[in-house]
């Protein structure tokens, strides 16, 4: 009775694209995950914390417009999902790589189940997908996991180092 | 039928006629013997146009129709032709319209005026398969899908019952339970495992939910990639070609389409007794239950009931199943009882011939404590029991009553809510089709809906001819001892062919992997039903044992190819397996011979 064909098709893709390899979540990532699950964080609060924090959770389409598309700084958009193991590994690595650039780049986190339209619009098929946006244009992207060195060079390229 | 005198009758008739005109691109009021009518119908056939012809001489109140048509159009004679709701006239006018191109104009005008070629209502297996196929064939297709939350507030994503609250989580939890058995067996095979083995509900539930989350996303992406427009909104017909879609914020949007497919599926039925919706859960809630259900009462003996009760018991929970009459209605009763006996031997309690009359909450909590009162179906006896969770699994109802079908004229069985369709999945309204669990007298199985949906799209848009074959559909019930079958149950075969024309071959067997742990000896069972009048063709296949789905699938193909007993006998078995039993079946049921097995 299983939904065989589609399931199989999906998993074929997933193993190829690293769509979502089941990885058990480590407790050290739980804080960042929880915060991404709390949409009650008010806009003003989020905006206030933006000045200090290198990364933020996208609240809705308008928020994405203001803080990503119209951002003066280049932005890394991390499309992730609760159910995605690799996302839980990549997220903190990305944050670290962004933090290292001390304010030259920001990071926007988009939960694809909460903001499906955004993910669909930006052609996200598998998670994690990371998109680099500068001046409203997508200038680079990757799908799946990267190690810290690779991330660093990806970020450096974005800020034109 | 006498002429209609009163206004209500007249208005009813008028709206009936209007509905026919509105819901058919080409509507012909005709008489079967009239040569002009034949001429017009031939023209439409030649143009390969779908049309609905109502033969007024063949229906009881044909003259009333004719009178009303006169009132509505000023034309009494037949044929009386309507195209896209516009009155064209009789034979001459229709032929003239064809000649001067105005007929074509009438046809095109409306087709372009629709927002979509096809709107599918329901984003389950069938709806998704059908919409994607239609889009792949170049049609503008839309899927409207919306999950109405359960009384407990449970809701889920895209993909329908199978993916979210059916086959997928069910099989994963069944697997969880089987791993528990495997751990017990493992000790006998030399694995040294701590005595205390515990199961963590939350870990399992989260893992299952995560996998389902990834599937939901996969479906969403597939729709985008195939250019199917997806809207997460509740669809209701407001006109034969128009639906109102209400999203979760209450915003209403309207869409029109040339054709529609209803694929809304079913939802669990409640009991209609005090406390059922307040305190009980259904399979819609179970798979994402935020806490371990604890001591559980399962009400019902449907396959959903036995599967859920089975895996809960396999997790080590105290499980009772309350049965009104028989197990697995519609399935082979001998097999059903054997599957039930196996559950009973493995600790599931059965309360037979009782029906619940009320459920009360003794203590709220996660889980809380509930008191269930039930009465005997045979006497005045009333019993009470205390449980942490009460799971209702007494059947499912088609979601056809709140989608505005009355606005379309689509006929629904008033008792069951099911939709009767032709062998091409067409309802009585030509531009509206239906697939999946809501169909009357068809299988409620995901792969059947997928097949029906895909073939329907190919027939509608790809010149396909193939119809969905609802005969010899293999399926499996994932009870702790799995039950796979294909074709007829023994009970049904006797009804259809008569006992004297059947030969039933059967055998118990003991899977090799059960021998070392020394469990379930001679509990597994294989049975085939052969038609003596047709070369001992296999018309029923039944298997109770491990990996029933894997075993049954191939035999399903064999039966599609018309396998006979002789062909099974000539097939070489794979040793040592369970499936090989079907190549060596010798004992007939009528002989009363011994069917226990031992050794190779």
Automatic annotation (TrEMBL), chain A:
InterPro entries: Thioredoxin (IPR005746), Thioredoxin-like_sf (IPR036249), Thioredoxin_CS (IPR017937), Thioredoxin_domain (IPR013766). Belongs to the thioredoxin family. PROSITE patterns: THIOREDOXIN_1, THIOREDOXIN_2. The lineage of its organism: Eukaryota, Metazoa, Chordata, Craniata, Vertebrata. Transmembrane segments: none annotated. This is Thioredoxin, mitochondrial. Residues 47-160 form the Thioredoxin domain. Pfam families: Thioredoxin (PF00085). It comes from the Eukaryota. Keywords: Disulfide bond, Electron transport, Redox-active center, Transport. SUPFAM superfamilies: Thioredoxin-like (SSF52833). CDD domains: TRX_family.
From TrEMBL, chain B:
Signal peptide: none annotated. Its EC number is 1.8.1.9. GO terms for molecular function: thioredoxin-disulfide reductase (NADPH) activity. Residues 116-453 form the FAD/NAD(P)-binding domain. Residues 473-584 form the Pyridine nucleotide-disulphide oxidoreductase dimerisation domain. Residues 26-88 form the Glutaredoxin domain. SUPFAM superfamilies: FAD/NAD(P)-binding domain, FAD/NAD-linked reductases, dimerisation (C-terminal) domain, Thioredoxin-like. InterPro entries: FAD/NAD-bd_sf, FAD/NAD-binding_dom, FAD/NAD-linked_Rdtase_dimer_sf, GLR_AS, Glutaredoxin, Glutaredoxin_euk/vir, GSHR/TRXR-like, Pyr_nucl-diS_OxRdtase_dimer. Its cofactor is FAD. Transmembrane segments: none annotated. It comes from the Eukaryota. It is an enzyme of class 1 (oxidoreductase). Belongs to the class-I pyridine nucleotide-disulfide oxidoreductase family. NCBIfam families: GRX_euk (TIGR02180), TGR (TIGR01438). This is thioredoxin-disulfide reductase (NADPH).
